């Protein structure tokens, strides 16, 4: 190899290395998240706000142990730790709808450095109804629409809305007894899903929810005024009879309502595609090759559901983006000043 070629390669190498190191010159904002499952979601959210002046580093809440969770994330925002170069990114759970009626809700809603999902959790975003057909296409490579996820979750939401308001009511007024999330989930679980039985499942959920609502009304005869006021308040916060599924416990929604439906639809679409291959193949070898090619191309419906990013067009996600943009727009320290400070702190060679 000639000396000139070596010199050129060396120059290219250091130019590339310097371009990689340029990330260190940007403002670094640490984003603490609750668990491993949250890293990809918040990377998706925050990545849209990175530019030549700043970048985000998504991290678990503790550097010294394996502690995780919402409370652990918020522990980083006690005392002198608070600052505009460190943010907390958490699931809303019920804290958004509780509107500061508990200490944790106040912490989540009042700190300018804490961001929440608005919907209950990231799983609710993954189950965003208008995106579920796309999930099935990604998993099966079959674009035929055989089930209306949007209508299914709309009807499910309408069936549980009144009971959901009662669930929030019990959290707002804890002195009136107990109706916890686990009890709510037990009432609203649809049961074994099949495409054909979907209307019956919704009807069953509606009957169970209505019975429970009547029971809670009887247990709380003086709650009508506060219940109706709360009902209007949660509507003003974005919860409607059509989208309630986005605000119930995320794991419950994912595991008992949406994932079983997506799995069944994907199974049907895969079988349909395989039948098509078998019927069109000219001979056995072509059939086996084509089936093998198809089976190696498709993905697990569960994996595709967990990687679903179709929620980015939802109103709740757009509100979250506006919150982050507002935080960035109102930073006290200009990005250029932070960049200069960080450059001065770079080790000298």
Order of helices and strands: HEHEHEHHEHHHHHHHHHHH
N-to-C span: 30 Å
Number of strands: 4
Structural class: alpha/beta
Report low-confidence residues grouped into runs of 5 or more.
Answer: 339-349
Shape: flat
Measured on Cα atoms, how large is the radius of gyration?
25 Å
- Helix % is 55-70%
Strand order of the largest sheet: 2-1-3-4
Largest sheet at a glance?
A: 4 strands, parallel
* SS summary, helix count: 16
Beta content comes to 5-15%
Nearest-integer average pLDDT: 88
Give the tags.
four-stranded parallel β-sheet, 349 residues, alpha/beta, 6% strand
What does this structure look like?
With 349 residues, this protein is of the alpha/beta class. It contains 16 helices and 4 strands. The protein has helices at 3-21, 36-47, 70-75, 95-98, 103-110, 122-126, 132-140, 149-172, 181-188, 198-219, 224-236, 250-280, 284-297, 301-306, 315-329, 335-344, and strands at residues 27-33, 54-59, 86-90, 114-116. A 4-stranded parallel sheet has the order 2-1-3-4. Helix 8 crosses helix 11.
SSE inventory with pairings:
Elements: H1 3-21, E1 27-33, H2 36-47, E2 54-59, H3 70-75, E3 86-90, H4 95-98, H5 103-110, E4 114-116, H6 122-126, H7 132-140, H8 149-172, H9 181-188, H10 198-219, H11 224-236, H12 250-280, H13 284-297, H14 301-306, H15 315-329, H16 335-344
Parallel strand pairs: 1-2, 1-3, 3-4
